[in-house]
Amino acid sequence: MPGLRENLAPGTSDLTWALTAGTLEHALLALGLMLYLAVPAQPEWVRVALARENYQSTKALKLG
Residue 13: how many CB atoms within 10 A of its CB? Predict the structure, then answer.
């Protein structure tokens, strides 16, 4: 029963297969990191609402 390596890349050496798998793994990790950095944790409208609430709360405390 042929394995994954024999089906995808017949005739490759162990070193070539390991380097290819490692490169693919690192590329996927880099893609995940780029997505993590590009997509904000909170939407813009949530950040604005929290900032507005914080400002109004601080303003109310100064008046009281």
Answer: 9
3-state DSSP assignment of residue 44 = helix
pTM of the model: 0.60
Side chain identity, residue 40:
P
CB-hemisphere CA count at 13 Å for 48? 3
Rounded Cα gap, residues 32 and 60, in angstroms: 42
Residues in the chain, how many?
A: 64
Return the domain boundaries, the chain: 4-63
- Taking phi over 0 as left and psi of -120 to 50 as alpha, with beta for the rest, 32 belongs to alpha
Give the model confidence (pLDDT) of 6-24 as tens digits.
Answer: 787 788 888 998 999 999 9
